Amino acid sequence: MNRLLTLTLMTALAVTAPAQVTWHELAIADGIELEYAINLPDGYDSQRTYPVLLALPRGPQTREMVEGGLRRYWGAQARAAGWVVVSPVAPKGVLFHAGAESVLPPLLARIREQIRISQGRMHLAGAANGGRSAFRIATLYPYEFQSVTVMPGHAASSDNARLKRLRNTRVRMFVGGEDDHWVGESRKTYRLLSEQKIDVTLKELQDQRTVPSSLDDGALMKHLVSMHAASAWPDGAIGDVHRALDDFNDAAAKADEDRYFGLFAPEATFLGTDTRISTGRINQGYDRQLETLCHLHLQSICLSFSFFFFLFSPTPL
Fold it and tell me: What is the mean pLDDT of the chain?
């Protein structure tokens, strides 16, 4: 079954693909099947990088709610903007801020395995229950996301202690001014984030209901596109370093040994502890499953930190 699902997903993510929304299932532990939609941009090319959005549905977070979010915010709008959108359904009716958040890591790993993510980290967005879920997921897995957008959303009391983990994540909050409860909860989360010196804004949109209608008709995607563009790596040597490191980590996550070792200089030496790696190459019989290559991803991160330490160290090492 897992092999069939993988082949189905790989078919959907072919080298070039027409614009489309496709549905998939991912087998999780304890017999849980996580259903999710993938929305590919026009002219999708698996060799290119794309901004990726994890979009969390509102309400009961059913398939109908996922489809509603695609129609309202990130369906045709995201395809035209050149984004990949992944939107999961709450498994067995358990919401993503009420227990189902624990099943998302395999989906996040699958996204990284199949899609080359622009700037190395995804964006995260959700409305109402999707916004509440966004804070839960972002504080649990902050290294996955460069931004969080909620319209509206707020952190639960159990999430507050983890809000400090969002120091490298931009948070944008929207709420309709007619809903006093959501406005009050949004203000509480905004104050907590501000106290942690996190890049956060809160917009209370007057004369609008809980989920602001002014974000419809492509307005939300314009906001996301603008945020992504503001984080683009600069031109020149520094930008080249960032892009190379992103490519390095992405190749490790996808078990792409040709691309991984292709980023090494000819005189480079691979520093690793796995005896199956020799003379700077992965042996032909090496198991390519992602779980057996986790050490490569971790080592590439360590090498990245070491490289930046070398660049910015005040004295020679």
Answer: 81
pLDDT tens-digit series, residues 158-208:
999 999 999 999 999 999 999 999 999 999 999 999 999 999 999 999 999
Last residue of a domain, one of 230, 253, 270: 230
Residue-number span of the structural domain to which 116 is assigned: 2-230
Residue 148: which residues within 8 A CB-CB, separation 6 or more? 123, 124, 125, 134, 135, 138, 166, 169, 170, 171, 172
Check the CA dihedral 304-307-313-315 and report its sign. positive
The number of domains in the chain is 2
Q: Give, in order, the Cα–Cα distances in Å from 136 to each of 96, 104, 239, 254.
A: 8, 11, 32, 27
* DSSP of 35-74: EEEEEEPTTEETTSEE-EEEEE-STT--HHHHHHHIIIII
Sign of CA dihedral 193, 138, 114, 89: negative
Q: Are residues 50 and 174 in the same domain?
A: yes
Span 108-158, pLDDT tens digits: 999 999 999 999 899 999 999 999 999 999 999 999 999 999 999 999 999
Top mean-pLDDT range of 8-22, 185-199, 296-310: 185-199
Tell me the C-alpha distance between 272 and 278, whole Å: 9
**Looking at residue 8, which CATH number applies to its domain?**
3.40.50.1820
Is the pLDDT at 305 greater than 80? The verdict is: no
Residue linked to tokens 């992504």: 228
- Of 13-27, 55-69, 87-101, 230-244, give the lowest mean pLDDT range: 230-244
What global pTM score does this model have? 0.74
Same-domain check for residues 118 and 221:
yes
Q: Quick check: 188 and 195 in contact, CB under 8 A?
A: no
Is residue 317, in this structure, part of any structural domain at all?
Answer: no
Where helices occur in the chain by DSSP H, the ranges are 2-12, 63-69, 76-81, 104-114, 129-140, 180-195, 219-230, 237-253, 257-262, 294-312
Q: Point out the domain boundary residue: 207, 230, 253.
A: 230
